[in-house]
Write a structure and sequence with these properties.
By secondary structure, the protein is mainly alpha-helical. It has one domain. It contains eight helices and two strands; from the N terminus they run E-H-H-H-H-H-H-H-H-E. A two-stranded parallel ribbon has the order 1-2. The longest helix is centred in the middle third of the chain and has 24 residues. The two termini are 32 Å apart. The relative contact order is 0.22.
Amino acid sequence: MKKTFYTEAAWLAGAVFLALGTALMERADFGMSSVVAPAYILHLKLSQIFPFFSFGMAEYTLQAVLLVLLGIFMGRFRKSYLFSFITAFVYGTILDLIMIPVGMIPASSFVIRLILYLCGMAVCAIGVAFYFRTYITPAAYELTVMEVSSKLKADQGKTKIIYDVVSCIIAVILSFLFFGFGHFEGVKAGTVICAFLNGILINFFSRIIERLFEFKDGLALRKYFEI
């Protein structure tokens, strides 16, 4: 029999798993996913000037800017955008906390870094799979894809691919601007690998989660999160 998993807990599980996976990939230093790469590069640069500017802060700051741009593009600002920022803030805060113990993991050898990267990619996919099973508004990245595809009446999957490509291009440009043409930061071979495997891993873990759990609302709050 399937065990009950509340959708509100799925939201928190998504944030924790995604933060842990991102921290593991950062420690591996094989390249971040194209979605978080711009925030990571922004963190690397601004933390040189403002040491307190953490990776998590870069994440929810950049997502706040993205939500403003989304509101301008859509011609309206919905309450779901505020909830989206709250999701980003929770995820960013957990990310900063998790990066402390993960940063203590020895990562001097190629094999260890590879293991960290593969584990990070898998854990991130689990986090996204849990996010898909909650009604609470997702972070700005996913919300942007949902809103833009709805407005343009475009396929959500194709819109996601375009968004990932644009994010990757922005990350490359930021890396060049901040660190020069001879030094890549954030966007590396692992970024390309993640782009190809991410969707497959998300679908794989989604099927496992569906076999193990039955998702139900624990609180009568779904109506407040309608996009």
